[in-house]
What we know:
This protein is of the alpha+beta class. The chain is built from six helices and six strands, in the order ββαβαβααββαα. The protein has a four-stranded mixed sheet with strand order 4-3-5-6, sandwiched between helices. A two-stranded antiparallel sheet has the order 1-2. Helix 1 (36-46) packs across helix 3 and helix 3 (81-98) crosses helix 4. The N and C termini lie far apart (43 Å).
Amino acid sequence: xxxxxxxxxxxxxxxxxxxxxxxxxSPLAIDVAESAEVRIQRLISENPVIIFSRAACCMCHVMKxxxxxxxxxxxxxxxxxxxxxxxxxxxxxxSSDSSASSSSSSSAAAAAAPAVFIGGTRVGxxxxxxxxxxxGHLVPRLVEVGVLSGYDN
Length: 153
């Protein structure tokens, strides 16, 4: 398939990693003119459950395991160091929409990844995801966005 540069199976059993090259002929084409912020916002809106991670992030692995135990297989995007700032900007844009909060950019960047979004809304990192699960609100939220069925609320 044109546009795929490399294909390999992930070692944690969590799927397949595709590295894409810019191409307009492939259905998996990446618009190289699209900024990282726009791409992240688009991915958040297109995927009901998405995790943004750093390379080899153990917390992301735990997040994927928790969600797969429930029966959800999220989209996982590994961000390069230069793209972490774009995730921070996306989170800041969302928090300014809901409630304005100020924090230093260094602490925001450190807390940016891993980050899970469910139904277009930022849940947070691993601690927030586990808290949502332990409080009994994770499964109803996943049912609400349509990634789980057969659960009684």
